[in-house]
Automatic annotation (TrEMBL):
Keyword field: FAD, Fatty acid metabolism, Flavoprotein, Lipid metabolism, Oxidoreductase, Peroxisome
All copies of domain Acyl-CoA oxidase C-alpha1, residue ranges: 298-459
Originating species: Aedes albopictus (Asian tiger mosquito)
Keyword presence, Flavoprotein: yes
Name of a matching Pfam family: ACOX_C_alpha1
Name of the protein: Acyl-coenzyme A oxidase
């Protein structure tokens, strides 16, 4: 099959000349790149036909952009669109007969990850947390009861964990579920204002069910937080159920379609079997049966942290696509005064803003593939009763969630800045990408808190290494650094050596952090106090460990891809890999000077190599972002459209402003005229 034939969309309008020139310069076969990026011919065909379908649906066309809508109108419109999407696909999900995680995740990526609803999908939480919570926490009988109904949206749910008073410290949650042996029921209560659930997505007006995390009490004893299935609204009328106080928490910086809500429960009774009993159980007489590990109650969060990494890679790739295309169309200033003004992408500083982000987006996507494989292996182990790899998965998922969300949030902002003033317009669509990434830096575990979780694991692993114990694969490298003194790692500018230098930085900083903890304990601090005082060192260690994992994953995956790719594509891939590695290395240059034999001369060489990568990528920049294959309606940006007709599109967007629909606004008569006519 000819590569170009897989349902590729062609632009309807004339393409901007500069953008067309960029495409003519591209040295590699874009379709070959796209096939690699999306995972194969079948995936590409399916993706393009799905996108064409949704693009052609009149139900998806906004007459007036939603950013002009009120809070309520926006919610109502996003619910309408979400139901269009899921009515189309719910048959697919239930047809499988049984839940198949691979297919399910693929479906999620296709329909939630793509961002068909730019402002956030009010049914997103149902698919990304409620259903995974059923899979992770419900017994087989409970899965029979809820899973199929949830998959085909007969019931719609949220995941209600965070409260007004506590989001991070889960042991501090106050909602109670007290077992009543007389009636074989749990009585669920929000005893204080701070115990009100606050934030759960879609909770406000969208869902009728909820997995509620609450402190389990039986026979007067508290057993910690557990998940309970609670019906919050009537299935026919959607009125709140008795004892349920529920509503919207108000407008937010972004995710405006997601309908985040509050929930108070007053003596709400659910059957004992409403407790999700795959892991812990409560018997008829109130006896509590412990799970094999108490952290299994946190399982849904691990799953979501894993998929966030993929979601961030896609968001960054979209933002970079917009900024790279715009930078090729925008002309500003002369480099040679004799020649016309240059495309802004020819300013090296502009290349340094954008090209590393293109490479980073790809590296994050490759990392998410790797992480997903780890997740699958660990869940399969868990299903056969082994918890051995769970701490490792938890630790790596935490720091990767942090690196991916923080780099995407800052990366999108860099893309906005790279588009000058026009980048600040809502129709450029950076606001949506930024607010999604910024929200993800907080939700599913606040980023600093998650780095401390990774650090906790690393400290534990360091101590095990010191004792000569075997370490888990992602931290196996620590074993090479056990010893009393800081070790200078032998620097060279080859990519694999630089990646290993990251290990040296982690190991040496970890050694110093562990020593700091010990010194503080020796001075009388408790272990918790000493750890808190060492917090700054610990979060740095955890972040570099995450960055090492990204580089290692990207390197291995690029190497693998290069074995099959054509020569021109191999050259592009090698350059992208080098760029992301050099960029990350320059970011931690201080640590490299401290913990490796890198000299001033080596550093200058590294900077030169980095600049050479920018130069090498220049002719292919547009080719690469085109090959990400995001259709215009998915990018949703006047600056990033395939045809590059930026100025026409900006004008057309401005014409949609409600303020431009009448020649004179009423404020003239009401306020301006009186001001102008008033005499002192
Ligand atoms: C190829 C395909 C690839 C895939 C592609 C797929 C693409 C699909 C794309 C689709 C697009 C959709 C995008 C997504 C949209 C999502 C929307 C979501 C919206 C947001 C939802 C939310 O926002 S929902 C609430 C989340 N709220 C938190 O996130 C609370 C944080 N707070 C804690 O998580 C705990 O509170 C905290 C701090 C740990 C302390 O907990 P604590 O005090 O109990 O624990 P300690 O620190 O004492 O730790 C005690 C021991 O537990 C260990 N441990 C702790 N956690 C563990 C765990 N999870 N697993 C294992 N082990 C764990 C630890 O490592 C210790 O182990 P050890 O003792 O051995 O050292
Ligand atoms: C858009 C969005 C959607 C959400 N959706 C959901 C949902 O569907 N379901 C749900 O249950 N929740 C949801 N949440 C809530 C979210 O999970 C929490 O807000 C998040 O876990 C952070 O907790 P917090 O708000 O308590 O922050 P806090 O813990 O109060 O954080 C405040 C500051 O304190 C610091 N801090 C706190 N503890 C420590 C510590 N131990 N060590 C060092 N520093 C610390 C943090 O680093 C941060 O700087 C959502 C939040 C957002 C923004």
């Amino acid at each position: 099959m000819s590569l170009i034939s897989i349902g590729k969309r062609m632009p309807a309008q004339v393409v901007n000349k500069d953008l067309q020139n960029e495409r003519n310069k591209c040295t590699f076969n874009q379709e070959e790149f796209t096939l690699w990026w999306v995972g194969g011919e079948e995936q590409l065909k399916e993706k393009r036909s799905r996108e064409s379908y949704f693009e052609s649906q009149p139900e998806f066309q906004d007459k007036v952009p939603l950013h002009f809508a009120s809070h309520q109108e926006l919610y109502e419109e996003t619910v309408r669109k979400a139901t269009v999407i899921f009515t189309k696909v719910k048959k697919l999900l239930t047809e499988q007969g049984k839940y198949d995680e691979k297919k399910y995740v693929h479906f999620m990526e296709a329909l939630l990850g793509t961002g068909f609803i730019k402002e956030g999908n009010p049914l997103g939480i149902h698919f990304s947390m409620f259903i995974p919570a059923i899979v992770g926490h419900a017994s087989p009988e409970q899965q029979d009861q809820y899973l199929k109904k949830a998959l085909n949206c007969e019931i719609i749910g949220s995941y209600a964990q965070t409260e007004l008073g506590h989001g991070t410290f889960l042991r501090g949650l106050e909602t109670t579920a007290t077992f009543d042996p007389q009636t074989d029921e749990f009585v669920i209560n929000s005893p204080t204002l701070t115990s009100y659930k606050w934030w759960p997505g879609a909770l406000a007006q969208t869902v009728n069910h909820c997995v509620v995390m609450a402190q389990l009490y039986s026979n007067g004893k508290c057993y910690g937080i557990h998940p309970f299935m609670v019906q919050v609204r009537d299935s026919d009328t959607h009125m709140p159920m008795p004892g349920i106080d529920i509503g919207d928490i108000g407008d937010k910086m972004g995710y405006k379609g997601v309908n985040n809500g509050y929930l108070g429960l007053k003596n709400v009774r659910i059957p004992r079997t409403g407790m999700m009993m795959k892991n812990a159980k409560l018997m008829r007489d109130g006896t509590y049966v412990k799970p094999s590990s108490s952290v299994l109650a946190y399982g849904t969060m691990v799953f979501v942290r894993v998929i966030i990494v993929r979601n961030m890679a896609q968001s960054l790739a979209k933002a970079a696509t917009i900024a790279v295309r715009y930078s090729s169309v925008r002309r500003q200033s002369h480099i040679n005064p004799e020649l016309p003004e240059v495309q802004v992408i020819d300013h090296v500083t502009q290349q340094a803003k954008l090209f590393p982000l293109v490479a980073k987006a790809i590296a994050l996507k490759l990392t998410s593939d790797n992480l997903w494989q780890m997740y699958e292996r660990t869940t399969s182990d868990l299903n056969s009763g082994s918890l051995d790899r769970l701490p490792e998965l938890h630790a790596i998922a935490c720091c990767l969630k942090v690196v991916s969300t923080s780099d995407t949030a800052t990366g999108v902002e860099v893309c906005r800045l790279a588009c000058g003033g026009h980048g600040y317009l809502t129709c450029a669509n950076f606001l949506n990408y930024y607010s999604l990434a910024s929200a993800a830096s907080t939700y599913e575990g606040e980023n600093t808190v998650l780095l401390l979780q990774t650090a906790r694991f690393l400290v534990k692993m360091w101590n095990q290494a010191v004792q000569g114990k075997q370490l888990m694969p992602t931290v196996g490298y620590l074993q090479n650094y056990v010893g009393k003194q800081v070790q200078q790692f032998p620097w060279s500018d080859s990519v694999p050596v630089i990646i290993s230098a990251f290990q040296a930085v982690v190991a040496n900083k970890l050694r110093i952090a562990c020593q700091s903890i010990e010194k503080r304990k020796a001075k009388g601090a408790t272990p918790e106090e000493a750890t808190n005082m060492t917090g700054l060192e610990l979060i740095q260690v955890a972040e570099v460990h995450g960055r090492w994992f990204v580089l290692q994953s990207a390197y291995e995956m690029f190497e693998k891809a290069c074995q099959k790719a054509s020569a021109p594509l191999v050259s592009v891939m090698q350059n992208l890999c080098k760029l992301v590695v050099y960029d990350e290395a320059l970011r931690i240059r201080g640590d490299l000077l401290r913990f490796t034999t890198m000299t001033e001369t080596d550093l200058v060489k590294l900077e030169q190599n980095y600049e050479a990568c920018l130069q090498a990528l220049r002719p292919n920049a547009v080719g690469i972002v085109d090959a990400f294959d995001y259709p215009d309606f998915v990018l949703g940006s006047a600056l990033g459209a395939y045809d590059g007709n930026v100025y026409e599109r900006l004008f057309a967007e401005a014409m949609k402003s409600p303020l431009n629909q009448e020649p004179v606004n009423k404020t003239f008569e009401l306020y301006l005229k009186p001001l102008m006519k008033s005499r002192l």
